[in-house]
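Here is one chain, start to finish.
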Amino acid sequence: MADIILGIESSCDDTSAAVLRDGVLLSNVIASQQVHKDFGGVVPELASRAHEQNIVPVVSEALRKAGVAPADLTAIAFTRGPGLLGSLLVGTSFAKALSLSLDIPMVMVNHLQGHILANFVRQIDKPVNEPSFPYLCLLVSGGNSQIVRVNSPLEYDILGQTIDDAVGEAFDKCSKMLGLGYPGGPVIDRLAKLGDPDRFHFAKPNIPGLDYSFSGIKTSLLYFVRDEMAKDPDFLEKNKEDLCASFQKTLIDILMGKLIRAAKETKIREITIGGGVSANSGLRERIVSEGRKRGWKTYLPEFKFTTDNAAMIAVAGWFRYRAGERTPLDVAPVSRMADY
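Its structure:
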């Protein structure tokens, strides 16, 4: 009998549901929230209310597209955390109610684990291209920046992580400083393609080991722009493409420097990236070029699996379900999770 898993993702501002049959994706539906652009960032209360409105139609559409009835489901995988507590509560509560009504088990998933396993989303009529264990994952998003050694679908070692801000946050705050809007990552990436990445230089942190820090580079950009605009009020408008290109290159240099070091120390040549920032074209090009140079096998998730989505949650949940994991109904969502 086939394992048919419903995945539910509601950690931030995207409501998503996906259906998986024996590890193969049948549907993946995402409802995004546009209201947050007016505030320059996600407003937790607005996000949770939107999830309440979206969860039922999104799940219904995922089941319809998959050609699956609720009674056909084997289990429900849902994001327990980390994320916004109100948003997580909507997804968790829905998973509990559906689990009770259908008398099927739940499997909780760490949102970050979903990103790490995004390359294992199998699609109909598409070739399988999955990393071999162990592999290194550069996990980069608005809330996290980590280098993770992935020993198996259920076993992880965090080799390095940010000690302050995440790289996605650095992109967003840079965009805000330059008046480019939210979310900042896609805007900076687009403008960076038009600029000179070697025009300006920003401070790079000297952090021991494999940990990251991104607070200093934001300060460096802030002071640099402030000083230049004191000389020329039009400096920002005249140089925004070069500023974006130079800032993005600096962030990528920082990320890749530690990843290269981790690959050398672990002697692992299977390299992946995951998380929202893994959609950045500059980072994707750099990791592929470094891979060719260093003999890595690199794996990039499809763009539709870089943002928050339920397909990755369903895959992570499927691995856990097959390993015999089950989640009790008294589970509560958590905004932070200490490990995987």
